[in-house]
Each structure stands twice: as structure tokens, then as C-alpha cells.
Design brief:
heterodimer; A: 530 residues; two-stranded antiparallel sheet; globular; B: mainly alpha; 19 helices; 72% helix; 4% strand
Amino acid sequence: MMSGLLVVLLAPVLGALAVGLAGARWTPRAGALVGVVVSLVSLAAVLVVWFTRSPEESFAGEVDHVWIEALSVHWHLGVDGASVPLVCLTAVLSALCCAWLAGEPTSLADVSRGDTQAGPSTHALLALVLVVEAASIGVFVALDLLLFFVFFELALVPMWFVIAWWGDPHDEAGRRQAATRFLLFTVTGSALMLVGFVGLAARTGTLQIPELATLAPGITGTFELALAGAIALGLAVKTPIWPLHIWLPDAHASAPTVGSVLLAGVFLKLGTYGFIRILVPVLPEPTARLAPYLAGFAVVGIVYSALACLRQRDLKRLIAYSSVGHMGFVVLGIATLNESGMAAAIFASVAHGVITGLLFFLAGAIKDRHGTAVLARLGHGMYTRAPWLAVAFGFGCLASLGVPGLAGFWGELLALRGAYEAGLDGGVLSRATAWTVLGVAAVGIALTTAYFTGLMRRLLQGDPAAAEPVTAAGTATATATAVAAATDLDRREAVVVGVLVLATVLLGLLPLVLTAPIGEALPWLLGGGR
Amino acid sequence: MTFDWLALAPVVIVSVTAVVVLLADAFAGVRRWAMATVGSIVALVACGVVTAVLDGDPRATMCSQAAGVGGVGPVTRCSYAVDGFTVPLWWIVLAASALVVLLAAASASDLATPPGELHFLLLASVAGALTLAAARDLVTLVVALELVSLPSIALVAVRRGDHLAARSAWTFFLASVTATAITLMGASLVYGATGSVHYGDIAAAIENGALPLEVLRTGVVFLLAGLIFKIGAVPFHMWVPDTYAGADTAVAAYLSVVSKTAGFAGLLIVLALPFEAMSDTWSPMMAVVAGVTMTVGNLAALRSSDAIGLLAWSSVAQAGFVLAPVAALLLGPAGTDSGLYASIRYLGIYALANMAAFAAVAHVRSRTGRTDLESFRGLLRRDPLAGVTLSFALLALAGFPPAVIGLVAKYVVLRPVVEDGHAVLAVVMAVNVAIGLAYYLRFLVVVLSPASVASGRVLVVGQRHGPRLAMGLGLAALLITSAWPGLVTSVLL
């Protein structure tokens, strides 16, 4: 049976093969066009699968073939209301990343290395972007634990190359170190997760997530708590949950623009999706016992990341740290184990992908112009120098801090409501825990507002010519680059940014486009198809 | 005593071919390499055919009747059996040996390497490996172990006038002799304690009880120590990198795959058949050895800057992974996911990936004369077949997609460990997967990197097809099994 989901999955794979094998025979523009087209094919295919679903099945477009008989591994795919939004997010962000690469002249890394012909090409980067896209989509549509794990790992090594070969051209040792740290952290985490999966399979005799979810009420006990702990630890590294986030700032800051966008917009969602798809439906009882700790680490992460942001001197690192805070809200939503919280987790995941994607694209645009992302050298008064760029950046900041009417608002609101409900009778958190969590999260929101407004005032407003109170030499270069970089968004950048701005407004004003499918998936996620 | 010649056929074919190849080489003038290569391959393929016939048809031979231990009526005891353990191990040995023969052809234009001797020693050692997987008493075990070891020591030093090789062979010789002595000591203690060398009798004696347990335990530990030596696990691993460094690449590949498989065959069958009832003696020991072996091997590989050294240490680490499920050996009905089958499956996948990696290394060595990591820089651009094979093999060894088969292998060995509740060992394995990726990735990055400035002079020592064919076969096998991992797991049952 040919399913639409195979098209969703295979389109980027074929695109990656085509772009990778064609190499320099195609212009970078043609390669990028192929990337955009296959990503849009994926997007269209998943929407077709979703809108032609039959209402009585829990999963649309389900495919289930035996893959490894001796281990009862199945090639089992399917989507529901929790995965479709994330697949769409992945396809859209990948299409935009490819579009972004269409205009990159040659990668900066080539120039810095001095060998123009032998350097890593834009084609290879495009192919890797498409591989990452395929792997992430695979995670979102897999309904078999081992298949989930295969896709989960598939994207790691390509991502290492994206960061280490196309990353920050001014710091080769730094970007390699960042890439390696990213890889080793996430691999250790996912190996622990594999231990958890293996234990789950040994305990229940199946790897199929829907089947596991129906067995869920029987999966309780100390051994099962240990399994849930191993899986949660692995996902927590990926998400990341404070204090396991330490790989994130360097990786995001050193990655090239598309790498940062994919890391923040798509990669982190693999972790949260694992919580939503596996931990909560399959191990509900052990997860409920872990929930207070998850909630605690989540809100500490929110406050910690806000404080870290206040002290950041690099634009990309600042946005990276703000991701830790947003993921804190997602994990807080998951830790409530109720409808509001789970809806918050999915909504906030998508919103974070759109908004942080936007911010990283803009930060990339700024870095391309100035050759640096150090705030002190970016100067003031971007409203005057590059009005469209500045307005879009200000918009991104407002959306990220959760202004009502934009996408970032609903996730935070629902997460807080979920936490409140979880503290009521019958919830998974005690009353005291719930109120403490809410209080700490509120402090985090206040601090988040503080650093984003501070950033906007410093970067966007003021007199462009005003000198930074650094050293004399520093001032001179800062002013010189600021003047040289006073070009506004070009057409390619405007299209990419425009799409994400529109999506932010749409999700903010019409949250129903997301909450409707999410609402359909919630009974399965919280009740396991029982 | 009866002989079932079909069951014995693989050992006989390989042994006879060994002698024929040696004699033919002495009398033939030209085309000695081609003759030796083709002859060996034909013999191995014939063995494969016999194995396919024997698959699913358990046989035992060299049997004798004896009064059972402890007054149980007369029992039939056999020294040689082809059963569910033997056949998958034979597949691994035969396939890997065929690839080694192809690799050895890389040194065809090297006048210092005599083809007749090389193939004679290789096939003699293979005959030992085949016997080892079928041995069902301690004497056959020790004899087969010697038959594997002695020719392979000579193989390391087969190149005339190579001092490094001679030194490596000495290291290997001393290590091997010590190992054999310890194994023999263990075997005699077990014989003294139980009164028999036959696996069936030993198991029955242990069941009956009333044995000098201290002596028996010491015997088992000594026996295992000797076999651990053979597979290169900690604490008897130091000979591995030294020996591989001096040996020809094909011989290093042979040692890391076929000879190691033979050691595992002995170890797994000894643990599973006679000493299963004593698992509380050896299970903790195996768990510690497995955990320490993979950690030490991986940490040492991190510091290695030579392809052979890296693969040598990685083979130490991989031995730890093969050993891990042994700690949780559960002898269920054949075909279930017991620890024994998990080890055999992992061994098969490791053999495939490691042979592919060694094939690419041998190819590069025959072109450049070097094996340091820098000589692999830009390999993918220079030589796509070698580059793709090496990259895929490294990913399979690390257990990473797209080499799905490597990931499946990791899953297979983790499962009995977790199932049996060895939480610490499971976490150690998880951490080691991460450490392993660190050095495989380092190698991979060099292979994939675009710049090939430092590749140096290209020293073409003859255009031989052997390594290319071995690489092609290895790559095809890895790709096919990654798409349908069920193929491997169903063959290696």
C-alpha cells in the first residue's frame, strides 16, 4: 500500500540525493530551488494525508510493515493532530532554509580557509539540510520505537557537519568544539534513551507505540520508573531542559544561519515530541511520578535562561538562551499531564519554531552585514539604518516575549493554565508545587520582557552614529561596519522573513488552526487509545 | 567411532586445499598469486555450499558410547557437532575469510610476500576456526584453538625481511602461548574435577553436584582467561594493537575478524553448553570484563592517529560489546533472543563492517603506502568507492544511521542486558556508544573532508582488483542489510 506519508518522507530524501549527486553541475540557485520544491511537496503531501483522513482511525495515513521479523521491528508510520503541525513546521522551515541558501554567494568558510575550489560547497549544505528535514519528519511520523530512534539519530552526524564546516567563519576551532560538544551530549542522551526503549520492549514484547499505549496502565513499578527516567533523561538533553542545556548556546551561536534555524526550529522539537508521543502516552504512571521534577527543572530553566540573556554580549547566543526559556514552558506544559498543558506544549513547540526561526534568520542577516554578532559592535539605531530589518527584528522580539495577538502568547498562557489545573484536586502536582511553579514562571516572564526590551532599545533605537563606550579603536570599527552594513533586507531575505511574520500573526490571531488538530489528538495522548 | 563426512566436509575441504595450494605454488612458475587466490576462494565457496546444506539439519559425529557419570545409563557423547550454534559461526568465518583472501591480493606485486605460504597458513587457520565452532569437548577445543593460533602467528611474520612484522609476531606468539597454557591448565582442572572432557558429561556432572567446587571454579576461570586472551578483551588485550601494527593489512583484518570469531565461538559454546549451570560464577566476571573492555578500547582509540591503530583499539572495544550479552546469557529455546544469539548476531554485523573498513584501508595502503589518518584526507573525492565504503563501515561500527544495521546490532546486544536487569552495564554501554562515535567521527571527517592537499605522493603498487572487489562486496552487503536488517538477523540464528 502506497501511503502519502511515504511521499512526505521520501521527497526530501530524493531531493538530498539529487542535490548531493548533482553537485557543481547545478548552480546553487537551481539546487536551492529543488530543495524548496521537495519541501513544499512534503508539506502538501502531509496536508493531503491529514485532510483525507477517516475520522474513526487514531492515525492518518498509517503504514505498518514488518521490517525486522526477529526483533519485531515494524516500518510503522502515521500522523495525528500532534504530529501534523510539527511536520508542517519542519517542511516550511526547511523550504525557507533552502530559499535562504539560494542567495548565499559562496560559503564564508571557503573564503576563510583560502581554498575556493576545494571548500565545502553550498550543494553539500543543501543536501544536509534536506537530510535533516527527512530525519526530523521521520521522527514525527514514526510509530515504532526503533524506527523513531533510527530517525532520531540520523540527523545528528549531518548536523555536526553543518556546524563544523559551515559555521562561524572566524572561529574554526570554536565551531568544531561546539559541534562536537553538541554531538556527544545528544548521543549520550539518546543512547540512554535507547536503553529505556530496549527495556520497554523487553518488558512488553512490542515496539509499536499504539500497542504500547493500550498496554500503558499495566506499565508501572520501579523498573518502569527507571525506564521512564532513562528515556526522559535522553529527551531532556535534546529538548534541552536546564541543567542539560549547556551544549546549546555554543552550537546555536557557532552554526551557520540555516543551521541555527534548524537546530532551534526543528531539532529541539524532536525532544519535546518524544515526551509527547512516547513518555506521556506509554508511561503515564512513571511520568506522573517524574512530573514535579520536570516542572521544577522547567521553571528554573525559564528564570535561568532569562538571567543568562540579560548578560549576553552576542546576539545569536542571546537568542539561543531564549530558546532554553521557551522550551521550559513546553516542558512545564508536558509536566502538567492535562489537556491544557499538553496543548500548550504542542502549540508552544510550533510557535517557538516559527518565532525563533524568524529571529535566527534576522540575526543571520545582521551577522552577514556586520561580520559579527557581538552586540557592542553592531551599533545603535537600526531603525534608521535598515528600517525593514529592524522592524522585523522588533516584531520577532515582541512575539518571542509573548505579546497577545502573536503566536508566542498562547503557548505560555496555556502552559500556565495547565500548571494551575495540575495543582487542583486530581492533578499530578501538589498544590504547593503548582503555585511555586507558577510564581517562578511569572518571574521568568518578567525577566524575559526585560531582556527583550533591553535588546530592542540597544540595537534598534538611538542614534546610529553615537559611539559605544568601549575603546577608541573598537568604536571606529563599530561605526565603520555599521555604516557599511546599512543595507536593508534584500528580496530573498524579505520573502523568508515575510512568510514567518505572516505565520506568527496567523497563529496569534487564529490559534484554532493549531488547537483544532491538537484537540483531536489529546484524548489519545492522555488516554492512550483506551 | 563413526565419521559423518558431510558434517566434517568444510574442515576437510579447507585443509586439503591448504596443502594443495602450497604444493601447487612450489611447482608452478607463473601466475602463482592468481592460482592461490582462486583456489582458496573456490574452497571457501564450496564450504559455503556444504554449510547451506547442513543449515537446519543438526548433526553430530565422532561419537562414542560410554557409561554416564554418576551411574546414569550408557550415553552417546560426540566431539564434533554441527548445530544451531555452529552454522551461523561458520557463515561468519567463511564470508570473512573469503574477503581476507581478496584483500591479500593487494600485496600480489610485493615480492617479499610468498603467495603459497600465505594462503596455506590462512586456510590452515580457517580450518581451525571451523573446527572450533564445532568442537564439543575440551580436547578438541584446545587442539582447534592451537590450529587457529599457530598459523596466524606465522601469518603475521610471513613477509620476508620485515623486522616490524617479526617483532609483532613475537609479541603475538608469547601472548598466544601463555593463553594456551592457561587454557590447558583450566581444561585439566575441569577434567580433574568432573572426570570428563565432554561438554555433555561436564554439564551432567555439574547437575549432579557433589564436586570439588573450588577446583571446578578455578578451572572455569582459567579456561575463560585463555579464551579472553584470544578475543583480545581486557585484561589480556595489549597484544592486539602491537600485533596489528606490524602485520599486513589483510592479516590484521583476519586477526580482527576470523581469529576473534573463533575465540568467541569457543567462549560462547563453552559457557552455553558445559558451564551454563555455573553462570553465577562467570556471569559477573563477564559483565566486568565486557564493561572494562569496551571502555578501555574506546578510550585508547580516541588517542590513536593511525587507521590500523584506531581499528585495532576499536576491535578491542567491539569485543566488549559482543561479550556484554554473554553476561546475561539466557539459553532459551533456539531462535529466541537469548544472550548467546545476540552475541553471534553482533559478531556477524561487526565482522561485516570491520572487513569493509579494513578493505578500504588495505586499498589506500596499497596506493599510498601509508596508514596514518592524514593519508585518508579527501578520500571520498579521490576514490569514491573507497570513501563511501569506509564511511559506511565506520558508521556501521559506530552504530549510526544511515548504517541502520550497526544500530540494530547495538539494539540486539543491549536487549538481553537490559532484560536481565544489568543496569550498570547498560549505562556503561550507552556511554561507550557515545565515546565510540567520537573517534569514528574523527576518522569519518578526514575521509569526507574536501581538501586533499596533504595526500602526498601516490605510490601505485600494481592495480589489483582484490581489494576493490572486497570493498564492493562489503559495501553492497552493508547497504542491503541496512535496508533489510531482517536478512542478517534471520541468517544468523
